[in-house]
Design goal:
The protein has 217 residues and is an alpha/beta fold. It contains seven helices and nine strands, in the order ββββαβαβααβααβαβ. The chain has one domain (9-209): Aldolase class I (TIM Barrel), CATH 3.20.20.70. The mean pLDDT is 93. The protein binds iron/sulfur cluster.
């Protein structure tokens, strides 16, 4: 892939990742987009405002599939995918309804998110994801609201209520979607046992990941 040209899709491990947007309602202390200068392992994820359409994404993903099939399509870039909820759902719908040949409808679709979609959109958006998103990984990070605000650094509109809305999102996802993980980044002074207990209480499977690993939402 040409590192100078913005990458709308990029490969990582067995997945094809979709870089929907660079917009994000948080500025997480562990986000690597600035330190890595918007480069993710050789792919330039700086869209410079040129957010891709679902048709463009499907065309590029189809070419990637034809070159080498991937196991899952993952919405995750240097930005929060649910900031473009309609584009996210439309793209997933095209895949799941068999309208994205040669990509098979059975291809697993995953969303990596900071979990603020319900807060940003002012409604419970999880039911809209049912049947379209197979797996969701929510960056919860801690069981402590003050620590959440310190780690995630949400924009002002979501500073006070964001943590509760993320918990609500996880609860809803665990009820409606096939697979829900709550993730935390190692270090950061987080009480990992408390984090895991909260994840389980919300209905999610906890997952602790190393810093500077699979970043993006
Ligand atoms: S890690 Fe993800 S959610 Fe956090 S600021 Fe970076 S892009 Fe946004």
């Amino acid at each position: 892939m040409d590192a100078a040209k913005p990458s709308v899709v990029y490969r990582y491990k067995n997945g094809l990742y979709v870089n929907l947007t660079n917009r994000c309602p948080t500025a997480c202390v562990f986000c690597v987009k600035n330190a890595w200068k918007m480069d993710y392992r050789g792919s330039n994820l700086d869209l410079s405002g040129a957010e891709p359409s679902p048709a463009e994404i499907i065309a590029l993903a189809g070419k990637e599939w034809a070159a080498a099939p991937f196991e899952e399509l993952v919405f995750c870039g240097f930005g929060e995918p649910t900031m473009r909820l309609e584009a996210l759902l439309t793209t997933a719908r095209l895949v799941k309804r068999g309208k994205a040949p040669p990509i098979p409808p059975a291809t697993r679709v995953r969303l990596n998110t900071n979990g603020l979609a319900n807060a940003v959109w002012g409604r419970n958006v999880v039911p809209e994801m049912k049947g379209l998103i197979d797996s969701v990984h929510v960056s919860l990070n801690t069981s402590d609201p003050a620590q959440w605000a310190a780690l995630m650094r949400p924009m002002e509109p979501w500073a006070a209520t964001g943590f509760e809305k993320v918990k609500e999102f996880i609860r809803e996802a665990s009820l409606l979607l096939p697979e829900t993980f709550a993730t935390a980044v190692e270090g950061n002074g987080v009480d990992i046992e408390q984090f895991k207990a909260l994840a389980v209480k919300l209905g999610a499977e906890p997952r602790v990941r190393p810093r500077l690993d699979e970043e993006g939402a």
